[in-house]
Amino acid sequence: MGGVSATAAPVANSSGSVTNQAIQVLQGPYITNTYGGGIQCQGPTLNITPFVTGSGSMQKPYEPYYNDPVYDMRDLNDDGSLDNPGNILYHVPTRTGQKDNYNLSVGVSATWSIPQDKKLQDQCKEAAATQIDLMRQTTANKRLDFEIARLKNCGELMKAGIYFHPRSQYAKICADVIVTNPGGVIPPHRHSIPSVSVPNAKSVSPPSSPAAQLGAPLQKGLGQTSP
User: Fold this and answer.
1) Are 109 and 176 part of one and the same domain?
2) How much of the chain, in percent, has pLDDT values that exceed 90?
3) Which helix (H) or strand (E) holds 47?
4) Cα–Cα nearest to 216, from 208, 225, 206, 207
5) DSSP code of 6?
6) With CB atoms 3.0 to 4.6 Å apart as the test, which of 66, 171, 172, 222 could cross-link to 164 if both were Cys?
7) Residue 56 contacts by C-beta under 8 Å, 6 or more apart in sequence?
8) Is there a contact between 133 and 89 (Cβ–Cβ < 8 Å)?
9) Radius of gyration of the chain (CA)
10) Model pLDDT, residue 225
């Protein structure tokens, strides 16, 4: 009489996962510079797109091992039937192979766009330079008109004797204006009178006259007169 024990329920585990990730690069319009007057020029464009992608997969609860049962397969009386069907003799620890998966991707996507028609680019640049010169000349003309108006107004006011106080913050507006042969006097206006000395000159005092000949009473005091 003998007994035989064997594992009657084999276990097979399989798992799989598929992750599709894509990076989409959207090309924007060309960089456009506007110079006024309806002039717009487009230049080469460089698009740089950094990206970071990641994924992770895991199973809960985490079980690194499981107990695989070993059943009683003995037939002690040799009748062709199991004596203890379904009876578990013991368990065998079996590794599951379960693990977590993580993925991290870092990269940079770049596109370089260049206009193909160089002639149009050169013409647009030339038109832009002309427009810039025109705006500069227009600004210079307006500046000249302002200076001439300032010169005229300051000159007319100075001829009329109207001016800012030297300590006024607005005195510098007309500080560089010069008026020649003005009709009036431009302040500050001063004249120095030199002294003249006569040689061998004697000082002459006016003759004195009696008080009676002056034709008016002399004041001796407040409310008193002399006859």
Assistant:
1) no
2) 22
3) strand 45-57
4) 225
5) B
6) 171
7) 100, 101, 102, 103
8) no
9) 58
10) 45
- 88 and 127 belong to one structural domain: no
pLDDT at 189: 58
Sole residue written with tokens 């042969």: 181
pTM of the model: 0.44
Tens of pLDDT, residue by residue over 57-102, are 888 888 888 888 998 888 888 788 888 888 888 899 998 888 888 8
Instruction: Identify whether residues 93 and 131 lie together within a single domain.
Output: no
For residue 114, give the nearest of 49, 50, 48, 42 by alpha carbon.
Answer: 42
What's the token pair of residue 178?
A: 């010069």
Q: What are phi and psi of 66, to 5 degrees?
A: -135, 155
Over residues 151-196, the pLDDT tens digits come to 999 999 998 889 899 999 999 999 999 988 655 555 555 667 777 6
Distant-in-sequence, close-in-space partners of 86: CB < 8 Å, separation ≥ 6? 71
Q: Is the pLDDT score of 226 beyond 50?
A: no
What's the rounded Cα separation, in Å, for the pair 114 and 104?
A: 33
* Torsion, Cα of 180, 185, 190, 193 (10° steps): 100
Please report whether residue 149 resides in a domain: yes
Q: Looking at the 3D structure of the chain, how many domains does it have?
A: 2
Q: Domain containing 35: what range? A: 31-116
